[in-house]
Amino acid sequence: MANHSGRQLASKWAKTEALLSHPGLAPHIPPTRKYSPQQLQHMLYVHGMVVIKPIVGSGGSGVIKVMRTGDGGYSFTHRDRTQRYGSFDALAGALRSKTSNRNYLIQKGISLATVNGKPIDYRVKYVKTFGRWEYRSLVGRIARPGLFVTNLSQGGRMVLAGEGIRSSLGASHVKAKKAKMREITVMATRVLEQRFPGISHLGFDYGIDRGGKIWIFEVNTRPH
Q1: Do 96 and 146 lie in a common domain?
Q2: For the chain, how many structural domains are there in total?
């Protein structure tokens, strides 16, 4: 049984479905679908930019950004390389080799607030010890120049969350955004604990877009 729940917990899809069930959390989750060429075409039509990521996996290495371009074509970016295609069929064919080895999901792309032109997102570590949940850290992660993923394993730089919010949105936002991230963390932890009893280490990946809205990108159940 433990093995089954561990597999389920590793699945971004299972956790996304659990969080979407809560009306206070659902507005903070980017629209998400299981990957297929048909879903990709639909999501690109609706959103213009999407992110494709492995349903099981971490570290940002398999994450691909896909965009509709102004000339009616498409592009995808993996790590620091961008490739362009004139048609959706050509794009889908190129992605087939990238996505055939694992199951992926598609998420609406979020235009993150930036620090000196580099995207920043946030990691909140929340840990249960002796029956009580407590915060271990709340940090910002600034992408390495030329990359859109902020993972430290991909060269991202860590800053205190307050410093990141101040640098990307302005000092007047720091208190409210940190409080909102904490509020969402508590709400989401209650939902996940009901659905997956026994969890004790959570890592929340948050993004704040250019308009100041907070998004939940992912919840890691065995955070590094």
Answers
A1: no
A2: 2
Six token digits for residue 68: 């509709």
pLDDT in tens, 130-155: 999 999 999 999 987 766 655 655 66
Does 51 share its domain with 132? no
Residue 60, Ramachandran bin (φ over 0: left; ψ between -120 and 50: alpha; else beta): left
End residue of a domain, out of 108, 139, 166: 108
Helix axes 174-195, 161-168, angle to 10 degrees: 120
- Same domain for 153 and 93: no
**pLDDT tens for each residue of 62-110:** 789 999 998 889 999 888 889 999 999 999 999 988 877 788 889 999 9
Domain limits for position 157? 111-220
Task: Tell me how far apart the alpha carbons of residues 6 and 147 are, in angstroms, rounded to a whole number.
Answer: 31
60-69 contact pairs (CB < 8 A, 24+): 60/149, 60/150, 60/151, 60/153, 60/154, 61/151, 61/153, 61/154, 62/102, 62/104, 63/149, 64/95, 64/98, 65/109, 65/148, 66/40, 66/91, 66/95, 66/109, 67/109, 68/44
Length of the chain: 224
